Amino acid sequence: MRALITGITGQDGSYLAEFLLDRGYEVFGMVRRASTENFERISHIRERIKLAQGDLLDPSSLISVVRDVRPDEIYNLAAQSFVPTSWAQPALTGEFDALGVTRLLEAVRNVDLPCKFYQASSSEMFGKVKQVPQNEDTPFHPRSPYGVAKVYGHFITVNYRESYGMFAVSGILFNHESPRRGREFVSRKISYGVARIKLGLDRELLMGNLDASRDWGYAGDYVRAMWMMLQQPEPEDFVIATGRSHTVREMLDIAFRAADLRWEDHVRSDPSLLRPAEVDHLVGDATKARTGLGWKPEVSFEELIEMMVSEDLRRLGG
Ligand code: NDP
Ligand code: GDR
Question: Which residue(s) pair with 50 in the sheet?
Fold first, then answer.
């Protein structure tokens, strides 16, 4: 089997590549040109994967990649994935996260390849939630340009399935983290901040909304669900979540305690980190994935945060 992963240099791309290599897949990753290579997360598997140049903005590059690689499965993980940036760069976010999906689906059609297609949809589509917990039937009300773009990406995937009979599925994944998470996201910002404070490199950590609550899981568990969705007899969409929600405050508590510190002694509020419109509370209902795919998360919230703190301490030499 041959898989093509867009966004292979990101958090999920690197875990998914490892997962597929372990299953004997030939793994190709699509990477975009940057002035400096950003292959840190895939350096340990660099010799076992093949890379092809392409950009979600550039239709002909997508056609070339799909035509040259001829994958059995495509995982479209590439995106502008940081929610605050989507207010600063709303049109670019829409180009990547919305129209980029159409461009890639069109490339598959253009090459006329009978491959399976996975789209990385997001719990941010639920936004101002209409129902608690959220499942595959919960209506969307996105609260950021990112969420809006992801709703487009979600429905264009559904539409290509319905219009052309493609095996195209959308995984609605709730937040998932790991030691490879970008340092701008809240979990890694905290784990990295705790490690720096513990080692005397910093004294305080500036934070935004501590009341926001999310359903946080471990990225390694979530990439397994992506693959499972493409092994089903029929293409269907699934919510992937732990079913438990925690506040940012609880995350701070666990992370600082893991380093024998008290968050109240170090965290300061920075109003500039508050978002123009916030998603207050997300919690997913992954019953369909549990019964239909046989998927369940293995790593708990506490284990996840402790793992991230301990890995950042190790990296910083603590
Ligand atoms: P990351 O931000 O870690 O990775 C994003 C990847 O997309 C990087 O490899 C990046 O490449 C690539 N990329 C960005 N723009 C383009 C472009 N124009 N052309 C080609 N590649 C591009 O994201 P995650 O791994 O955390 O998330 C993977 C996907 O899942 C994203 O679509 C995200 O929106 C979605 N998602 C993530 C969740 C999470 O909690 N992590 C939850 C739900 C959905 P480069 O290295 O060059 O920047
Ligand atoms: P999110 O993740 O926006 O949910 O999107 P993020 O970790 O950025 O924020 C989670 C919550 O924490 C609050 N918060 C802070 N966030 C950041 N980044 N920095 C802070 O200092 C801070 N203080 C409080 C936020 O307000 C928010 O409520 C992630 C991304 O991976 C998306 O690509 C993905 O689709 C969704 O998860 C599901």
Answer: 28
